[in-house]
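note to self: dont lose this again. the chain is below, predicted strucutre after it. 235 aa total, dont forget to put it in the shared folder this time
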Amino acid sequence: MSLLLAVLVLVLLLAMMTTKVMLGLLLLLRYATLALASLAVLTCLPAPPPLRFADYEGKAKELEEKMSERHQGEVMEFQAKMAEKLSHQRVKFSKQLLDMRRIQETLARQKEYAEAHKTKMKADQMEAMEIEQFRDKEAGKNVHRESMFIQKQKQELSALRKRIQTGRDELKKQRQLELERLLQRYQNVKNELESQQNIERLRADKYLMKTLFPQSTRRATGGGGSPKRKPLHHN
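---
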């Protein structure tokens, strides 16, 4: 009889231990489920959009290269036009040279060929010198015109680079705002999940205590009640 009683007690103890183990495993499983749910929610957050910096920089470089190529072509075209204009431009000779030519013609009509030849030689030298001076002067003007033309192109390229830099700064600001919004959303989801985990943990702890230690739980909550006082009888 005592042996049977001992076996029953052992079976009951094993059952209680098994129940505790099972409840503990269930609690761990619940925590693991919550953790996986949190991870799943966090991983489902949308990833930040690509930086787009590489695409932007590539397009900016392409714009600069195209403008530089266009400028080179425009300079070559400008130089060709100036050279053609200079070649067709008539020289305005000095009054002294014109008078010398008239004297040359007069001497030739008077058949003073020797003097006419001497005058022609002097006039030719003066004409060559004036043509050279004229071309040097016009070449200097063309150099100045070309310099002004190139300066205008540099200003155009500088304006393009400023616009590119403005777009680059704006892209960085947008990227920063996107990251801040994403981090804020992550923090909100994290706080919400932590709050839910705390609530579930308290519920699970309360359920576990109530299941494993029902007597202690009833005493703590006053479930057992207090002993009733006997009524006093007055004689």
